Amino acid sequence: MAAPSRDGDLRRTFATFPARTGGATGEPFATTWWGNAWLTALEAGALDPARLTRGRAYAAQGNVDAITVTPGQVLAYVRGSRPRPYRTQVRLRTLSDADWDRFLDAAVERPGHIAALLDKEMPHSLADCGVPLLPGPGDLEPLCSCPDRGHPCKHAAALCYQTARLLDEDPFVLLLLRGRGERTLLDALSRRSAARAARAAQNAHDTAALPGVRARDALAPRTLPPLPAPLPPLPHPEQPPAHPAAPGGPDPLALDQLATDAAARAHALLTTGRDPVAELTLWQDAVRLAAARPGSGLTATTRALYASLAAATGRTTADLARAVAAWRQGGPEGLAVLEEPWDPPAGRFDRARPLLLAADLPAFRPWRNRLTHPAGHVQLRLGRDHLWYAYESEPGTEDWWPRGTPDLDPIGALTGLGALP
Q1: 395-401 CB contacts, 8 Å cutoff, 24+ apart
Q2: Segment 271-283, tens digit of pLDDT
Q3: Among the four residues 4, 31, 184, 327, which has the most C-beta atoms within 10 Å?
Q4: What φ, ψ does residue 76 adopt, rounded to 5°?
């Protein structure tokens, strides 16, 4: 019965209310006027106040399981003295189409009505629009699988008390009980509001002749004056203004970097007609922005920038730091060398090992586009741009980091690295 997956506009399932602290029954079950009106209808139509008292206790103890609300019915299983819970219903007559028309007309008559409903409030003036929206004594019809023939039994009373809590939180529950779902009602209110506004505008429209232009005159061919010559582009992008820090606001240095980057891109687009970073992926652009950060150390500001860019791209800050090193080594091609092994054609890659041996270096181990020193601490990677990129790692860790400057000569790429035994 209580299957939220089956819920829709005409069916809503609400989770079980937890038991009140200490099972207290003295606390009110409704705090809004419409929730209390529901309880008044229940208590005025009850034939035995003692059953109401036991029903309040059942509700306070959390004996009412998940509640399902559909047009004309509230349904739940209520646990009593027996092991098996009872199937309990409370029925309420749904409104006719004519009643709903009157309700919708009253709701759109005042703009505050719709705003109140959206805020989960039920205005008195809307409930008093001549439509029997709230139940009266005898309107609530309890049904229960228990043997008690009371009106209501304590299980139905418990369900009514918990239903009052639902009405407190959302008056659309009452409207659903009366036959219309929230989405259907809001769509109808939107259409009626638009129609009402259109009628008001039409009534207020001045029927006097308005000045206009004949269609043939407006569509006649005409020669437009030439556009003024564009201003010459600046020789370089201007420096953005300073952004003072504000408590809880964004990092002013990060804002300065983004503004400077945007100015540089705009200047390039203005002078060359092309955006220099338009073809970059999200990850490449994040690496580019991080690599443009001045300085080599990870300050607090830089760490915040790295954390933000890494989170936006689904990477770690360590991944970003390594990628930044590759970008500073060779730009987009350097990043590709870091992340994309490939199989180079015969030629330059095959000639590299003899050159290394001729330089009194040991035989590097080949794998795809990579040559690795047998000690495992130095590696050369051939890029698709035919340059060699040097990498270093602690021996045996496979923790490779870009080092040095790319070079057409593998021996030149190793220049500046540590001793190569």
Answers
A1: 401/322, 401/325
A2: 887 887 778 899 9
A3: 327
A4: -160, 160
The torsion of the CA quartet 322, 327, 332, 336, rounded to 10 degrees, works out to: -30
How far is the CA of 417 from the CAs of 126, 334, 392, 403, 408, in angstroms? 82, 18, 8, 8, 16
Closest among 145, 157, 152, 2 to 67, alpha carbons compared = 2
Q: Contact at 8 Å (CB) between 74 and 12?
A: no
Helix (H, G, I), strand (E, B) or coil at 389: strand
Taking only the tens place, the pLDDT of each residue in 93-121 is 999 999 999 999 998 888 788 888 888 99
Beta bridge partners of 89: 75, 143
Q: What is the DSSP letter of 94?
A: P
Q: How far apart are alpha carbons 106 and 98 in whole angstroms?
A: 13
DSSP 415: T
Residue 295 CB-density burial (10 A; 0-12 exposed, 13-18 middle, 19+ buried): exposed
Instruction: For residue 144, give the 3-state DSSP assignment.
Output: strand
